[in-house]
Each structure stands twice: as C-alpha cells, then as structure tokens.
Amino acid sequence: MADLLPLPASRDEIHHIQSERKKIAFERAKTAGWYKGKLDHIPADELEDPGVWGQIPIITKDILRTFNHSEFMDNFNVARATDIAEYWRSGGTTGKPVFYPRTFEDVKYGLESWARTFPAINIGPGDLCHISFPLGIHPAGQIWARSAHQMNVGMNWVGAGNAVPSEAQVDLILALKPTVLISMSSFALHLINVADTKGIDLSESTISIVICSAETLSDAKREKLALRWGAEVYDVFGMSEAGLMGCEGDAHDGIHIWSDMYYCEVIDEKTGEILPEGQTGTFCVTPLFSNNATPFLRWNSGDIVRMIEHGNSSGTIGELFPMIQHAARTTGFFKIRGVNLNHAEFEDFMFRNQDINDFQAVLETGEDDLENIRVKIEIKRGSDEIKVTHIVNAEIKRVFEVSALIEVLELGSLAKAFETSIKAPRFVDERQ
Q1: Cys-Cys crosslink for 295: which of 255, 268, 291, 394, Cβ 3.0 to 4.6 Å?
Q2: Span 134-149, mean pLDDT?
Q3: pTM: predicted TM-score of the whole model, two decimal places
Q4: Average pLDDT over the chain, rounded to whole?
Q5: Distance between CA 20 and CA 2 in Å, rounded?
Q6: Which of these, 399, 355, 396, lies nearest to 375 by C-alpha position?
Q7: Confidence class for position 241, pLDDT limits 50, 70, 90
Q8: Residue range 299-330, pLDDT digits in tens
Q9: How far apart are CA 358 and CA 370, in angstroms?
C-alpha cells in the first residue's frame, strides 16, 4: 500500500502526472450524467491551456444539494455497485449532507492521502496516536486511523467525545502514553479543560504533537493548544469530496497540498477567472486518482485561500509541494444593539486570555426585552476570579464596544455541556 503512489521525485514530475491524470479525469467525467453535453466542446488534448480548462463548469455544494441521494447517484456516480466499497459523508455542520460512493480503488488512494501526513510531520515507528475524530461514515477518523498501520505507526481508535467520554479519554492518554493527539482543535481544548477539573496538567503528558483538522485553527487556538499540551501543533486539510489533501510543514506557514494527487486552482468568486499565485479567491480541486465513482472536475470547496508556490518548510514537503493559506473570513456573527460581533474574532480574543479555560457566548433577551450577550467562563485553577472577571468585562467593552454579562461557572460545567457535541457550541442564540 505504501508504494501505491510514491512521492514524485520533482515538481516537473508532478506537472507530468497532472497533465496525464487530468485527461483521465476529464474522460471519466464525460460518462457522468450531470456532465453530458457540458464537455463536448472542450478538446481533451488542450486541457493544459488555462483558457480551455477554464471552460469546464465549476461544481458547488449548492448544485449537489438540489438532488436527493437517488438523483445525485444518477447524475454523478459512474461506478458499478460491485465496485463500491463504502460511502463518505460530506463535511460541515449546516445544510443537507451528501453521501459520496467510494470504490475500493478510491479507498486505497484515500488511505494513501491520509498516510502521507505521518512522515510529513515526522511521525513514525515507535509513535502512538490517540485519535478523537468520529469513527463513522465521515471519512476523517476511520481512514486516518486505518492509514497509520501502513506507515507502521501505532493508533488508538478512540473516537469523539460522544462515543468515549472525555474523562475516559484523559485517562487513556495518561495510561497508554500516546505521543500524538489527532483531534478537532475545539475537542483538544475541551480535553484540557476536562483534565483541569481533575487537577491534571496535560502539558506533562506524553503528547508532543497535536494534529488538528476539520475546523479553523486560529493563531490564538494554536498558541493555547501548544502551551496547555506542551506540544507542537500542526494543521491538516482535507475534504470528503477528494481526500486528505495536505498538511503543514515545520514552518507552519500554510498547508502543503499533495499536488500529484489533486489539481488545485484559485478562482475569482465573481468572474470565475483563474487567479495567479498570491491572489485570494475561492478554492477549486480536481481529484486525479480518487475519482473512480464521482469524477468531479473543478469542485468548489467554498474555502477562501491564496496559493503560494514555495513556503518556508524544510524537507521533502517544502521542496515538492505548493501550499495554500486560508484567508480570514467571517464565519458567523451576533448583531447586538447595532454592533456586529464576529464569532471568530471573539473566540480568538477569549482564547488569548490564559486565565480562561473555556467559554460560551449566549445571545439572550433580558427582562427589559433588550438583547444581551452573556459570556459564561471557566477560570483556570489558581487564577484570581474577581480580577479575571473584571478584566474580561472591561476588555470586551473596549475591543467589541458592547457590554456583556459575565457568568463564572464551576470548572467542568462547559465540558459536560459540550460532551455530546462533535463541535463545541460556543455561540448560542437564545433570544425570545
């Protein structure tokens, strides 16, 4: 399995692979119902011309969500039932999920794409991973766990907090002594807070590497995770429509993309124009190998990125693979008395305060029928509660220009509230 798709020797070889595999992907797509009549005018031998490639229609999540599962299969699946190994659920927490068929061949390349993360992050024989991703129809957890074995890396198949309680996960980390934690950043923070309620300092555990994926890893989250776990923190990027697409190198300045497995481009959101290196636009990907069931061309993931040809990471990952940098974007906000409070900015603000273990922001209607924001906080053991509360209150008003009601909770309260959620619900709208 490890020799299924060896790392290319050079960027020139990558360009050759892309050229050959784009033709295969194109011809495969022409057999799918949705593409019929949409590609006939495009010359297959001229796909290296950006003007020709740019004529291929872009697929978006909104297009897929217009179909029920049966209609989706009729329009996009080209595999026989005997070739389908499993289904992968689309990512995200909103909208109608899509279930993608994956052939046995697709799964092999999926395993390869996830397996590449281990040597890229210098994880090898002798390391033991604790994975806290859901182990189900969403591929990240189960494919990642399976891929470790082909790299001779140990793996504890633990799963998310709704499958194995967080306290039990902390106990497993202390007892089994893994060296790597693989988790969503919010759950990695959650485990810190659970441990703190028991007087346990996880920075003294055996974990030396924390790998995060599936949600935004802000600078503030990274700093907090690094400090409280005593570990180096890596970000990893993938999607169910393609596979695990790449990871950070030692410079932590962007995600290096496996460009021999995925042809990627950045396009202008309004015009569809292919943008040059360094310009910010929406991210499109064409899987070059994991396209045996659903041969997507130019899949628009919705991520806003810029492409950088050469980052600062050392070693093979820096030499071979270009990288993407996610651009700042508004992922949600509360509007309070005319003021927009950006969720991502507020989360960064809270996590930069090392005296706060965790928080939840609740938008509510007061007895006077006016909107208030109540910020529930758990304060790190040993910190001055009165001082911390005063600072948080004053800084929220200074930075965000809104007055907040600060509620101090007992350690562990939010951990229990978040226990059954895959992603911690830190922003809740309870207005009447």
Answers
A1: 291
A2: 92
A3: 0.84
A4: 91
A5: 22
A6: 396
A7: very high
A8: 998 888 999 999 999 999 999 999 999 885 54
A9: 26
pLDDT top residue among 196 and 288: 288
Q: Which of 333, 332, 328, 342 is nearest to 399 (CA)?
A: 342
Query: pLDDT tens across 144-191, in order?
Result: 999 999 999 999 999 988 789 999 999 999 999 999 999 988 889 889
* Nearest alpha-carbon partner for 263 in 5, 1, 8, 20: 20
Question: Domain 11-326's class?
Answer: alpha beta
Alpha-carbon span 432 to 367, nearest angstrom = 11
Minimal CA–CA distance to 166: which of 399, 418, 431, 426?
A: 418
Q: Give the domain 333-429 fold.
A: GMP Synthetase; Chain A, domain 3 (3.30.300)
Residues in the chain: 432
The domain spans of the chain are 11-326, 333-429
